[in-house]
Write a structure and sequence with these properties.
mainly beta
């Protein structure tokens, strides 16, 4: 597998065995505890952080933006679970690349009666980063996804290998109107996303 320098940084992050967890708070009444983990890896804190089996990592889609790249990767973790992860990479002044996970999941895609984007996303005033698999009944006909933000910002991406990727800076205002288009600009689905974060 021939990788770009940016993909190599994402690959190295995915296959790294995560370091120890630093617990950042006492347990809440519900039992939740905040924590951080250093050292890479592609498996969440709650599952022990086993990292990706290097032989199984497949970059489903990569896309370059001004200032960074996004990569959607599918892989099998060392514990045997099928996973996917959205990773953002960017180049440092010395030419090296840094990788940072945005989000992901495991198992089969959620069941939906119509096309839907299973987003992993992160945003703040500086940037909006999102991507994921287009899934649900009729998703195989999806050609393009358009996002229209509350402030009028519009982003589009073609559906390639069932995946869309989005990045913009500064970060626009949510919520977002999602339109999934099929052949001849037909609208297959339309719905609001990120409505809980206004």
């Amino acid at each position: 597998m021939s990788l770009t320098d940016a993909q190599q940084a994402a690959f190295d992050h995915l296959v790294a065995r995560p370091g120890p967890v630093t617990w950042a708070s006492p347990a809440s009444p519900g039992g939740w505890v905040a924590g951080t983990r250093r050292g890479g890896g592609a498996h969440g804190l709650a599952h022990g952080g086993s990292g990706a089996d290097p032989a199984t990592v497949r970059f489903v889609k990569s896309r370059a933006f001004p200032g960074c790249q996004l990569h959607e990767a599918d892989f099998t973790a060392r514990d045997g679970r099928a996973r996917h992860l959205l990773v953002r990479t960017w180049q440092q002044p010395d030419g090296s690349w840094t990788a940072d996970p945005v989000g992901g999941g495991s198992g089969s895609e959620p069941l939906r009666s119509g096309p839907w984007v299973n987003f992993a996303a992160g945003w703040n005033a500086r940037q909006f980063t999102a991507g994921g698999h287009v899934t649900g009944q009729g998703a195989e006909a999806a050609c393009l996804v358009r996002l229209t933000f509350a402030d009028g910002t519009t982003l589009e991406d073609t559906v390639d290998n069932g995946v869309v990727l989005f990045f913009t800076s500064p970060g626009p205002a949510v919520p977002v109107r999602v339109e999934i288009h099929g052949p001849a600009a037909s609208v297959l689905a339309e719905y609001d996303e990120f409505t809980d974060f206004e």
